[in-house]
Amino acid sequence: MTSSDSTTASNNPSRVMVTSALLLAMAVTAIEQTVVSTAMTSIIASLKGLDIYPWVFSSYLLACTVSTPIYGKLADIVGRKLLLLFGLALFSLGSILSGQSTSMGMLIAMRVLQGLGAGAVGPIVLTMMGDLFTLKERAVVQSLFSGVWGLSSIAGPALGGWLTDHLSWRWVFYVTVPFSLLSAFILVLYVREEIKEKPDTSIDWQGASMLAIGTSLLLLAVLQGPHASLMRVALCLVGATVVLAFFVAWERRVRNPVLPLDLVARKPIAASIIMSFAIGTLLFGIDTYIPLFVQGVLGGSATEAGRALTPLFLSWAISVFVSVRVAINLGFRATGLAGGALASVGTAFMLAGTQWPSMAPTLFFVGMIIVGLGFGPGSLSCVLSCQHAVAWNQRGVATAAVTFFRTMGGALGVGFLGATLAFGFGHRLESAGAKGIDVIAALRPETHELLSSDQLAIVQSSLGHTLRDVFLQMLVVAIVIVIAAFGLVPGRPGPAADAPADDTHPDHLELAALPD
């Protein structure tokens, strides 16, 4: 069955199986993105390396980010199935090796490998969804995917906390491997793919290399830590600026750019990208720093830190099913504006929680519910507006661009917020005369006895005030989501949305029949 036929056969059992495999692939990467946060204090206690702790998140996101445009381009050349299988295999290998890590440096390196695999999953899953479904169907199915992502993200922190408290932090990396393999097995059985009209097969490896080097230098600049020399930070910033300037110049003249600047400069695409970048920053900021506040300031356990994130992802999962109806009836712009406004209000509640720790559990709970209600319409409108604005032969690249900038927002956002944390926390500890205090002991309730009550109070107060600054920056990011949403496609899907995804694209995707 061709993709054109499959879009009219909503009850096709093979399409159900393929959709299930794509949902499973999306779920395992969603779990892995959130399962680590509640295990980090135990990982730090085991492997040390508090000063490079943000790199556990940022290295994964950076690897995801720089590989995403390459995967998007390759998906349009060699097909979706092969790249998705490769990504799942690499992701699984990175997960296993992350769980075997014996030092923080090794863990960061293995997280890079894991991220290189995850970089294929997000954009290719969304691209295959675009190939298989009509625009109106995509709105419904996108809500299903977002719902699964949200529910998986709910399970991640809670599962990470439980595994850490009852087994070992290493199991937070092992847990997704069997499900990755199951998804790959279903894809092998039910998808046959052939590119009948070969596109240009050249790959912009030079551009990809410059992008990777430039963004890595930028991350190095913001993650140097409070004791880095000004000269070293300046050299990283200058190097990043020079390399990224060369990247822009190169992309303007190369025939097949890894990140087509003319495409990303289109108003609806640019708005989707900016909005996606801000959502990525806010999402991973909350996921990284709420558990740290719960454990490091409020004295909660890993399990409690995991439960603290549940309202965010639960309300997100619920909101996407409402958002699909809003997007179809009101259009992408109105949906995005509503999402951004809710995210801003919710982040303001969480900022208030860092200001008044005694009320933090209640304010975090309310704030995360509101932010989750905003993430549903916000993330849905980004993808649908972007895919609606391009033809089939640009859908892979365009979808990858939006995914690229969301993970870039996560990587650079967590890195920048981590720099704020490192500088502010170090300065406050030094000002309080707390030099030499075992800060790691203050991050876990079971090791609080290693510190005096005065020492513990100094660490918790310094960390709490610094995280307040972090959440103030996150509120600014949430407001950017609202501003960017004004540039989305204003209208709503018309009658053509009931047509197949694109009647002009090559028939290349076949769904194998279910065995008798």
Question: Could you name the key traits of this structure?
Answer:
two-stranded antiparallel ribbon; Growth Hormone, Chain: A; 20 helices; 516 residues; disordered C terminus; single chain; 2 domains; 2 strands; mainly alpha; disordered N terminus
Q: How many strand elements? A: 2
What radius of gyration results from the CA coordinates? 22 Å
The share of residues in extended strands comes to under 5%
Question: What CATH architecture of the largest domain do you see?
Answer: Up-down Bundle
Our count of domains comes out at 2
Intertermini distance: 16 Å
What general outline do the C-alpha atoms trace?
Answer: globular
Overall pLDDT metric? 76
Here the CATH topology of the largest domain equals Growth Hormone, Chain: A
Order of helices and strands: HHHHHHHHHEHHHHHHHHHHHE
Going by CATH, the homologous superfamily of the largest domain would be: MFS general substrate transporter like domains
Mind sketching the topology for me?
Layout: H1 3-6, H2 13-35, H3 40-47, H4 54-78, H5 80-99, H6 104-132, H7 135-166, H8 171-174, H9 177-190, E1 191-193, H10 205-222, H11 230-253, H12 261-264, H13 267-296, H14 302-308, H15 310-330, H16 332-355, H17 360-388, H18 392-431, H19 439-442, H20 453-485, E2 509-511
Helix pairs in contact: 2-6, 2-7, 2-9, 4-5, 4-6, 4-10, 4-18, 5-6, 5-9, 6-7, 6-18, 7-14, 7-15, 7-17, 10-11, 10-18, 13-14, 13-17, 13-18, 13-20, 15-16, 15-17, 16-17, 16-20, 17-18, 18-20
Structure notes:
With 516 residues, the protein is an all-alpha fold. The chain folds into two domains: 3-203 and 256-511, MFS general substrate transporter like domains (Growth Hormone, Chain: A, Up-down Bundle), CATH 1.20.1250.20; 204-255. Helices cover 76% and strands 1% of the residues. It has 20 helices and two strands. The protein has helices spanning 3-6, 13-35, 40-47, 54-78, 80-99, 104-132, 135-166, 171-174, 177-190, 205-222, 230-253, 261-264, 267-296, 302-308, 310-330, 332-355, 360-388, 392-431, 439-442, 453-485, and strands at 191-193, 509-511. It has a two-stranded antiparallel ribbon. Helix 6 packs antiparallel against helix 7 and helix 16 (332-355) packs antiparallel against helix 20 (453-485). The longest helix has 40 residues, at 392-431. The chain starts with a helix and ends in a 5-residue tail after the last strand. The relative contact order is 0.16.
